[in-house]
From TrEMBL:
It comes from the Archaea. The keyword Transport applies. The keyword Protease does not apply. Belongs to the sodium:solute symporter (SSF) (TC 2.A.21) family. Its main location: membrane. It comes from Halogeometricum rufum. The chain crosses the membrane at residues 6-28, 40-66, 78-97, 126-143, 163-183, 195-216, 236-256, 276-298, 318-336, 370-389, 401-418, 425-443, 463-481. This is Solute:Na+ symporter, SSS family. PROSITE patterns: NA_SOLUT_SYMP_3 (PS50283). Keywords: Cell membrane, Ion transport, Membrane, Sodium, Sodium transport, Symport, Transmembrane, Transmembrane helix, Transport. GO terms for molecular function: symporter activity. InterPro entries: Na/Glc_symporter_sf, Na/solute_symporter, Sodium:Solute_Symporter.
């Protein structure tokens, strides 16, 4: 690669990051120093900003690189999982969980999920358990963004800039950004990034189609090189895998701290309802073109180096240098918009659910803010170090995090809707589901008497789905068998009409 091309590529990415940082500086000047404004933008977001900050927060290295990579190797049916099934499922869950959580949060002033559950069940230990589990599974997903950034820079520059440099670049920027901006700045930048990503990926599709000779040429190439991609069910996916993946991702997403906290921030209920109604449309508009690019690359015979991503390789072959860099900047936008929100939410869980209750209950807002900022820097640095070891592919790392969060979802939903849920039931459901899932993630498969333990699937269904079923059974069963403990208050979750 020519030096001039390299400078153009790095310049485009660098300019984008500097513009994002400038937005953060402006937001810092407008954000007050109290915790609710820093974490939740004073619960004042409108429809466009709420929709796009949620959209941009969910879009990550998993979307821009992991999904297209999978489509490249196994076919375009991944679109059905992420673009259609998850778009609709998450919209339904946004209503079922998000609307009720918004009502409760507005009435009680909650900032985190752990704070809400701890108050309902009168338990600091439950609050800490939910926060600890959330921060634990947040770690691999932050690491995923750093891995994606490193791989993106390697693919864009054809290996001239090393993997660690790309990962370090996004780490430094996201630390500075989150320390400065708070949710108000994150939301503003997410809106800009969401619009930018949505536009640039469709331009990329049009450019590739034009450069490759049109859709008919691409279809003919796919028929010759990857004919199995052209028939539903012809790829490497099984129905059980697709359903399991769609369910665990959708339920996992609603428990991601950066998503769950957005259930608290809508200005009013109309904003919330408009947002989840528009959500499936927005998801399809991004996921379909992104995953088509991966499938087309396979059909067109684009070669992707081991450990690299397909999108930069495809764009380097069919678009100009500057445009390929612009699309990678869009991908970096996706990664940064996910990372900044994750770090901000993770810091709120650290300070509100662990630091204040157990270490310093009388801490001032200013002191809490500094603890949060130091936590952001430490968390991002540790995840960067872990990302250098590349413990799996982007899909594997992301899927592991989704499954871990999914184990929280059903106990929380039971607590939100069933007044007879008890503290013991919550501990059993959350703890049991997590224990089952962790054993399957970290222990190797063993066979005892012809029966496989800790396998990837049971009867064809992913173990994460079985863990969710176990968490539901334990929450309901133990709650049914145990009385409410002292300090529990079912009335905490009582909500009424929109006028409440």
């Amino acid at each position: 690669m020519a030096t001039s091309d390299l400078l153009v590529q790095l310049g485009v990415v660098g300019v984008y990051l500097v513009v994002s940082l400038a937005v953060g500086v402006v937001a810092y000047r407008l954000t007050s120093r109290d915790a609710e404004d820093y974490y939740l933008a004073s619960r004042s977001l409108g429809t466009v900003v709420l929709l796009f900050t949620t959209f941009a927060t969910l879009l990550s290295a998993f979307t821009f690189f992991g999904g297209p990579n999978l489509a490249y190797s196994a076919g375009p049916e991944w679109i059905l999982v992420m673009g259609l099934m998850d778009g609709v499922l998450f919209a339904i869950l946004w209503y079922a969980v998000g609307y009720r959580q918004w009502l409760i949060g507005r009435n009680r002033g909650y900032v985190t999920l752990g704070e809400m559950l701890g108050d309902r069940f009168g338990s600091k230990r439950l609050r800490a358990l939910v926060a600890g589990v959330s921060i634990f599974w947040l770690f691999p997903y932050v690491m995923l963004q750093q891995m994606g950034a490193g791989e993106a820079i390697v693919g864009l520059t054809e290996g001239i800039v090393p993997y660690w440099a790309g990962a370090a670049l996004i780490t430094v920027f996201m630390i500075i950004y989150v320390v400065l901006a708070g949710l108000r700045g994150v939301a503003w930048t997410d809106t800009i990034q969401g619009l930018f990503m949505l536009s640039i990926v469709w331009v990329a599709v049009a450019w590739v189609v034009t450069s490759a000779g049109g859709l008919s040429t691409i279809s003919a190439s796919m028929a010759d090189n990857t004919p199995e991609f052209l028939a539903l069910g012809g790829g490497l996916y099984s129905p059980e895998w697709m359903i399991s993946t769609a369910v665990t991702i959708a339920f996992g997403v609603i428990m991601f701290p950066q998503i769950n906290q957005r259930f608290f921030v809508a200005k009013d209920d109309r904003v919330l309802k408009r947002s989840f109604a528009l959500w499936p449309v927005l998801v399809l508009l991004l996921f379909v073109p992104a995953f088509l690019l991966g499938s087309w690359a396979a059909g067109l015979g684009v070669q992707v180096a081991e450990g690299s991503n397909v999108v930069p390789a495809l764009l380097n072959e069919y678009t100009p240098v500057w445009f390929a860099a612009l699309v990678v900047a869009g991908a970096m936008a996706a990664m940064m918009s996910s990372s900044d929100s994750m770090l901000l939410s993770g810091s709120s869980y650290l300070t509100r659910d662990l630091y204040r209750p157990f270490l310093n209950p009388t801490a001032s807002d200013e002191r809490e803010g500094w603890v949060a900022r130091l936590g952001v820097a430490a968390f991002a640095t540790l995840s960067f170090v872990a990302s250098l070891f590349r413990p799996g592919t982007l899909i594997e790392v992301g899927d592991t995090a989704f499954g871990g969060f999914a184990q929280l979802a059903l106990p929380v939903m039971v607590a939100l809707y069933w007044p007879k849920t008890t503290r013991s039931g919550m501990f059993a459901g959350v703890g049991g589901g997590q224990a089952f899932y962790l054993l399957h993630v970290f222990l190797p498969e063993v066979t005892v008497g012809g029966t496989t333990l800790f396998g990837a699937t049971y009867f064809g269904w992913d173990f994460a789905l079985w863990g969710m079923a176990l968490s539901l059974a334990l929450t309901v069963g133990v709650s049914y068998l145990t009385p409410a403990a002292a300090g529990e208050d079912a009335g905490t979750f009582a909500v009424g009409s929109r006028a409440d």
